[in-house]
Amino acid sequence: MVEGVSLSTLATCGKNRLYGSSSFWRAPFKPFKKSQMTSLNDRHWVWNQSVQRLFLTGDPYRSRNSDSKVEAGWMFSGGEKGLDASVERSENANETILIFFFQLDLATRVQYALNMEEYDIAQELRNKLTEVEAEIIKQQDAKRGLSSKSEAQDKALQMISLQSELQNAIKSEDYALAAKLRDQISKLEAESLAASAKALAYENVQYAFRLGQKVKHRKFGYRAVICGMDPVCCESSSWMETAQVKKLSRGSTQPFYQVLVDVHADPNILVAYVPEENLLAPDQPDKDSFDHPYISFLFYGMDTAGDFIPIRQLREKYNQPRHEVPPNDEDDGGKA
C-alpha cells in the first residue's frame, strides 16, 4: 500500500479542482518510506501533518469559519460499555482517501502539462499515475480477499483433490495420513463457505445509504457523510476485534461505510468505518452546515435536501449512479 502520501502540495481551486506547483513534479517523487513509519504513532503523525495542511490551507470555507475550535475535540461515549467512537476510526480508510486525492491531483497535472505542451513532464506524470492506479487495483483486490468466485472455486477443487487422497489413504490403511487429510478438508470447507458467502455478498449487495448522504450514528450520535462503501467489512481482524464486529447483529458480512465525521463533533476521528446497522438517516432533511477538510475535494456542494453531491470520480470509484432529488422534495420535507 502507498503509505503516508503527503498532501502538502494539494489545495482547492475553484469548484473542487486540485492544483499545485508544476515544479514539484520536476523533482523525483519521494513518498514516505516504510522505514520512516515503523510505528503506529509515526503513521498517525504523517496523517495528522497531511490533515493539518489541508485543514489550514486547503479549504476556504474553513478559513472563513475559523471560530470553530477543532483542537478541543471530545470522544463520543455510549453503546457498549467501554466503547467510544474512536473504535471505528479507520486508518485504512484514511489512506484510501489520501491515495484517491493523489490520483485526482496527478490526473489534473497531466492535463495541465499537456495544455502547456510540456510533453516530457506529462509523460512522467502519466507514469506516476499508472503506478498509483496499479496500487489502487491492488488495494481493491486485497479488500475482496476470499470474496471472489474464483477463490471459492479454487477451494472447492482443492477439496475434491484432498477427498481423493483421503480415500486412497483409507484403502491403504494409512490412518495417520487420513486424519491429517480430514483436518485439511475441514479447514478448506470452512474457508470455502466463507468465500462463497462473501462472493454472494459482493454480487447481491444493496446499500441502504448513498454517497454524499448525511447520516447519524445510532450509538454515538455524531453526524457524518457517506464517502465510500464496501459490500462487507474489509478491515483487518485486529480492527474488527477492537470494534467488536462479532457482536453486531448482522456481523461482518453487511455493508460497511467510510464516513466523514463532522469536525465539530470530534476532529480526531475524521474518517470512520461504520457498519450499516449503526447508521441512521435523519427523519428530516439535515441542511445544517457540515465541516470537514475533505468535503470540498469529494463533493460539489449540497443539494436541496441537504445531502452532498459526490464528484464524478467518486461515483465511478464505487460504481454508484448520480442521485437526483425529486422536484417536490422541498415541499414534502425532503424525504427521498
Distance between the termini: 38 Å
Shape, please?
Answer: globular
**Rounded to an integer, what's the Rg over CA atoms?**
23 Å
- Uncertain stretches: 1-48, 50-79
Instruction: Report on the biggest sheet.
Output: 5 strands, antiparallel
Strand order of the largest sheet: 6-5-4-3-7
Beta-strand percent range: 5-15%
Give the mean pLDDT: 75
Structural class: alpha+beta
Number of helical stretches of at least 4 residues: 9
| Helical amount | 40-55%
The succession of helices and strands, N to C, reads EEHHHHHHEEHEEEHEEH
How many beta-strand segments? 9
**Domain count:** 3
Region (Disordered): 317-336
InterPro entries: Clp_protease_adapter_ClpF (IPR053189), Hemimethylated_DNA-bd_dom (IPR011722), Hemimethylated_DNA-bd_sf (IPR036623), UVR_dom (IPR001943)
GO molecular function, one term: DNA binding
Protein name: Clp protease adapter protein ClpF, chloroplastic
